[in-house]
Amino acid sequence: MASLVAVTQDASSSPFYFYSDRDGKFKVDLPPGAYGIASQDTGLPICKGSAIVEPGKFTIIKVACDTGIR
Questions:
Q1: pLDDT tens track for 22-68
Q2: Which end of the chain has fewer CB atoms at under 10 Å, N or C?
Q3: Which residues lie closer than 8 Å to 10 by C-beta, 6 or more apart?
């Protein structure tokens, strides 16, 4: 199922929104810098992560999700 995802560069920047594919994967071109990534869907799971994008490279990240199951 596709998910709405938000990417922010810092606390003062506006988020950039996009949808992942059905498998939760996404590819976004961003300028170099540090970013926070978070799912925007309501309910569980809650998915968050971070990435540092370097000039001229793609960055592969894994975003951790909390399902609420303990």
A1: 888 888 888 999 999 998 988 788 889 999 999 999 888 888 888 88
A2: C
A3: 34
pTM of the model: 0.77
Residue 70 located in a structural domain: no
For residue 68, what are its two tokens? 């609420």
Q: For the chain, what is the domain count?
A: 1
Structure tokens at 9: 């560069």
26 in any annotated domain: yes
Residue with tokens 């071109």: 29
List the one residue out of 52, 14, 11 whose CA is nearest residue 30. 52
Domain span including residue 39: 4-65
Q: What torsion do the CA atoms of 26, 1, 23, 67 make, to the nearest 10 degrees?
A: 100
